[in-house]
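Reopening: HupE / UreJ protein still failing for me.
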Amino acid sequence: MNQFQLYFQLGIQHILDLDGFDHILFVIALCAIYLGRDWKKIIILVTAFTLGHSITLALATLNVIKVNADLIEFLIPVTIAITAISNILKPKPSNGRGVQINYFFALFFGLIHGLGFSNYLRSLLGKEASIFQPLLAFNLGLEVGQLVIVGIFLVAAMLLVGVIGINRKDWTLVISSVVLGMAIMMILDTKFW
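Support: Ran it again with your exact input. Result attached.
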């Protein structure tokens, strides 16, 4: 296996790791207001998240910026909670303003999530001569992993909202409330307190 494949697989595994499910929760919170027909918007959303965390991941991995790890571990579930609360407070799941807010959340909160990845990636890179290719491969792996999460979520939404007939607003409220509850538990579990 070459270096690119190795870091690509590590990126996929990192995002799909159930022990680090905070990233999965954030992607679900971002997607909770969408259905399968919104797939183009979702791809842009997930890519905005990848772009945001790629920037800070690169800067932190290169030691250009340094942020307290405990603060980042606190802020990550805060970003999840804010996104979930925004979904809960939206009057309609598909209004245009909500989509714009989610794009902002994806990009800006992606910056915070990227800082959370940086210690992990820095430890992996260790003695690599150049980090460009491993960083690119890792981020592409993260993007693919996020698309897997989105795909699973959209299939569940299609079955429950489209086939079984659960009300779309109820679906959004339930998903967002569960994510919010989990985010609150994560906030309380951080070392930041």
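Residues 9 and 94 are 34 Å apart (CA to CA). If you still see a failure, please send the error message rather than a screenshot.
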